[in-house]
Every structure is written in structure tokens, then in C-alpha cells.
Amino acid sequence: MLPIPLAIAMWVQDRHLGLLNWLALPRWIVIIATFLLMDYAYWWWHWANHMLPLFWRFHNVHHTDLDLDVSTAARFHFGEMLFSVGFLSLAVILFGIAPIMLLVFFITFEAATLFHHSNWRLPINLERILNLIIVTPRMHGIHHSIVQRETNSNWGTIFCWWDKLHRTLRRDIPQDAVTIGVAAYRDENELTLGKLFALPFGRQREWRLPTGEQPDREPRPADELAE
User: Fold this and answer.
1) What is the pLDDT of residue 128?
2) pTM exceeds 0.70
3) Which sign, positive or negative, has the C-alpha torsion 190, 191, 195, 200?
4) 20-50 pLDDT, tens per residue?
């Protein structure tokens, strides 16, 4: 994803475009602002990938994985990657992100993505500490639940603050209680490489199990960390 946005970042820097180029800020504030602005922008991008039907067609491929682990962090349709390049390029222009800062942010962003897609089981006390700041595997695992209300939560990538801000933070499901995937796509024979490439271009199914049942769960206080 980086070559085009990096080239745009160099172009933006040369022409002194974008918010952070227009404001005379100390270097340390620019660094912090870059991480906060970009991560918050990605929260909205993730929201759009779920809420806008065109984008969901492609993002759906990521969620059809039946077993959440670090490989899921690389399971994205090429169409979503193209859309993401456009989004990232636009964010670079609007915020005036310097090339080196884009590179540092993106390495951190990808590391966070690998971490929260992993199947690590962290001690609950460590989880409570980390969840004050960052997105953890337990938190993001809920986002990959076959219960649609749970999937439509926890859209953060690095920081969990944006979900707290928008009241979309959900930590109330025990790790063992989460069934991973999309309700309508449970047959592994439908999740081959070729069929996943074709999935966005066909008719999208309702969020129901093959039996016709819509998976659900009695909600608990959403911000309560379940063991």
C-alpha cells in the first residue's frame, strides 16, 4: 500500500500542503498529532468498510476467516487494498503527513494489526492495563464475532480511545464464547482463494446462519471486561 502514498507524502511536503504543514508546531507535537489523526482517520475508514455496502462487499472477505490468528491480518481482498490506497493518500494530503512520519506510523499500524489479530490469550490483569490505551486480541476478537451487533463494534486499530468516544467499545464477551466469522459464510469449501476473490462481485447474503437463524447473545454492560 505504501509506494503511492509515500510518493504523495513527498509531493505534499515539497508544496507545504496539509494541516500539519500549515501549523507551526514543535516536532514532538507533530509526531503525536500524526499518530492521533491517522489512527482516528482509520477508525472512520474501518467504520465505512462495515457500514457502506460497496466497501463491505470487499471487507467481508477479511471477516469470513473461521479462525482468527495473525494470518487474518493479511487476509484482505485486492479491491479493498485499492480503496485503502485511495483513503491513505487522501489522509496524507489533508493532514500533511511527512514521508518519514508516514513510514513510522504505518510500521506501528501494521504491528498493531498483527498483534490484535493474533490468538494470544493475555492474562486478564495485563489485558485490563493494555485496554486503557491499545486494542488487544481479546477486544478485536469480539469484532470478528458472528453476532452482528458485536462485529459492529471495536473498530479501533492502535488506540481503543475512539471506540470509547463513540460508544462502540465492547469488551463484555469472554474470549472462549466468541465464534469467529460471518454468519452466512460458514462452509470452508466456499472460502477458497478463487471464491473469495469472486465474493464481492456476487449477491451478498443476509447476516444469517445457513439454517436461517440470526446469531445473537444477551448483551451485558458493553465496557465490562469479561474474563
Assistant:
1) 87
2) yes
3) positive
4) 999 988 999 999 999 999 999 999 999 999 9
Residue with cell 460497496: 54
Q: Write down the domain spans for the chain.
A: 3-200
Locate 109 and state its grid cell.
499500524
For residue 221, count other CB atoms closer than 10 A to its CB: 10
Write the pLDDT tens digit of every residue in 171-226.
888 888 999 999 999 999 999 999 999 999 999 999 999 888 999 888 777 666 66
The pLDDT tens digits of the residues spanning 66-88 come to 999 999 999 999 999 999 999 99
| DSSP symbols for the chain | --HHHHHHHHHHHHHT-SHHHHS---HHHHHHHHHHHHHHHHHHHHHHHHHSHHHHHHHHHHHT-SS-SGGGGG---HHHHHHHHHHHHHHHHHHT--HHHHHHHHHHHHHHHHHHHS-----HHHHHHHTTTB--HHHHHHHTBSSHHHHTS---SSBSHHHHHTT-----S-GGGPPBSBTTB--GGG-SHHHHHHGGGSPPPPS--TTS---------TTS---
Phi, psi of 6 (to 5 degrees): -65, -40
Do 175 and 167 meet the contact criterion of CB atoms below 8 Å apart? no
Q: How far apart are CA 119 and CA 11, in angstroms?
A: 40
* Residue type at position 2: L
Sign of torsion over alpha carbons 134, 136, 139, 141: positive
